[in-house]
Amino acid sequence: MKFMKLGSKPDSFQTDGNDVRIVGTELATDITIHVGEVKFHLHKFPLLSKSGRIQKLLASPTDSATDIHLNDVPGGATSFEICAKFCYGTVVTLNPHNVISTRCAAEYLEMHESVEKSNLVYKIDVFLSSSVFRSWKDSIIALQTMKTLKSWCEDLKLVARCMECIASKASVDVSKVEWSYTYNRKKLVPSVVPKDWWVEDLTEIELDHFKQIIDAIKTKARVSYQVIGEAVKTYTYKRVPGLSKISVIQGDAKVKTLVDTVTWLLPSEKGSVSCSFLLKLLRAACMLRCAEACKKELGKRIGRQLEEASVNDLLIPTIDGEVTIYDIDMVLNIVEEFLMQNNGGIKEMERPGMNFCNTKGTVAKLVDGYLAEVAKDRNTPLSKFLYLAEMIPNESRPIHDGLYRAVDMYLKEHPNISKGEKKKLCSLLDCRRLSPDACAHAVQNERLPLRLVVQVLFHEQSRTSASASVSAGSTRADNSSVVTSYGSSRSAATTTTTEDDSWDGSAPSVEDGEKRHTTNGDGGDLISGVNGIKVKGNMTPKTILGKILPVKGNGTGVLVSSGSDSSGSPGSGSASQVGMAKATPARNVR
Asked: What pTM, to 2 d.p., does this model score?
């Protein structure tokens, strides 16, 4: 830390209680100056020789020649005392902590060169230019002291000079950084100055000054947008440690101002900060009821890098008065922004090595996971669920397991939806895109419409037949695996297991009172299949399908095309399938 000593005489100022300062000399004091609550018993001559303001006050006939009140001195009694000691030639020490307030007080007292050469204003300006504003740490300390003297410092150009120094040093090449700085994070290379060496020191600065410094750094265009983004993120977390905690930020006007400010301060380039950080800002913006423009800007930025988000990041709570638990509309807007920017081919937004097809697939999985979560809320409207699910392009969902889980969860939590609504919901699924595990769960899922179950069974039959054409041994292996996936390998003893049967990507579970395993008279294992029809555990999907849909005059017992039903599900439009569905027995037979 730099400092400067002025004067050579020993300190003769004495304290009489907390509110009185007396100059201890042989001469009696002849003037009393009141600064706030403190009285200074001084001599006129030393003050008159340095201060133009004291000269004017003592020359005015309206003021007492011995009693003067100066209640608006910048920096108060402390700064005035330093100025008074300078008038007496007493030793005073200036440093980054007191130099700014003393400079403002000297300006107030008009201690200029016009009154006397080498006066206090001149000496302080030299100290600032040659020492304080040339030091990284001292500049930051000095800037922090300006917050209580904002108007004075701005008028004297102290703020601009100090921030220019900070911005210039932050923009230098890291190879030229030879001064000390604060860095508590792990360096990639211990002996090398990191590119973001200046980030932590700026977290101590007031928000308005921080904004001006970042703007100045951007103007110089010598610092990468990633480092600037890191600076903004670090500052935000330092100022609001509980950014993701609603109880901490709700109703805080300062946090609201900070969220709005940093949103517009972020670099415009994609990837300047993580998607998770942007979503935390958005969550805070919603809770604090920030301006719509702020939330829209964050949604736009999130949409550009949505593939980085997690399901938990997207679970943005609604504000008071809303029906649903989570803000689905906000996620709809984000996904729409993502699709618009990707479909528009915004190449300048691409990262090296980033494939848009892979990105869309990642976002499809993210949306399916999000749908599974909001499906648990019984107030989630079906219209919003469907709209969000249908926003994802078909080619971005090669596998429908995640979507199946979301649909199944919605059916479980909304048991009273109409048949028409259930039909719309299940039309989202394409059974040809379900994995064997998902198919195994689906054929035992009594929440699903029968027509969809039939489609799943037919698909499994087709898949098994295709496998069988490779080799006879392969056929036997495939049949065995299908039987196992349907849950047919069970003990001969009668058992009942109760657990949640909503599918999570694993093998199907068994619900109490719905699916039980029994043994027949000759020791064969039986399963309660679809519609309560009991089938032997070693039956293939073809046999199961034949038991559900017996069709006369067909050697295979099946008269089905590979298309889906006419309900609007993928591949709908098969007339034979429609007729087949009509022949299906009621599903509630047990």
From this structure: 0.77
| CA–CA separation, 271 and 287 (whole Å) | 25
Report the DSSP beta bridge partners of residue 534. 528
CA atoms of 557 and 545, how far apart (whole Å)? 8
Residue 313: alpha-carbon gap to chain centroid: 7
Q: Are 429 and 400 in contact (CB under 8 A)?
A: yes
pLDDT tens digit string along 412-432? 999 999 999 999 999 999 999
Written as one letter, the residue type at 393 is: P
CA distance 409 to 397: 19
- What does DSSP assign to residue 14? E
CA–CA separation, 48 vs 307, rounded Å?
A: 71
Considering Cα of 567, then 570, then 575, then 578, what sign does the dihedral take? negative
Query: Are the C-beta atoms of 514 and 521 separated by less than 8 Å?
Result: no
User: Nearest 5 degrees, angle CA 236-CA 237-CA 238?
Assistant: 90
Range 69-73 average pLDDT = 94
The one-character DSSP state at 288 is T
**Residue 92 pairs with which residues in a beta bridge?**
6
- Percentages of the chain per state (helix, strand, coil), in multiples of 5: 50, 5, 40
pLDDT at 493 over 70: no
Dump the DSSP string for 392-451. Answer: S-GGG-S--HHHHHHHHHHHHH-TT--HHHHHHHHTT--GGG--HHHHHHHTT-TTS-HH
Task: Copy the structure tokens of residue 502.
Answer: 């909503």
User: For residue 453, what are its two tokens?
Assistant: 């179950």
The token pair at 346 is 């915004």
Helix (DSSP H) and strand (DSSP E) numbers for the chain: 25, 10
Check: CB of residue 534 under 8 Å from CB of residue 526: yes
**pLDDT number for residue 467:** 77
Give the residue among 370, 279, 379, 281 at the shortest CA–CA distance from 322: 379
- The tokens 């749908």 sit on which residue? 371
Rounded CA-CA distance 430/448 in Å is 13
Cα 308 to Cα 302: distance, rounded to the nearest angstrom: 9
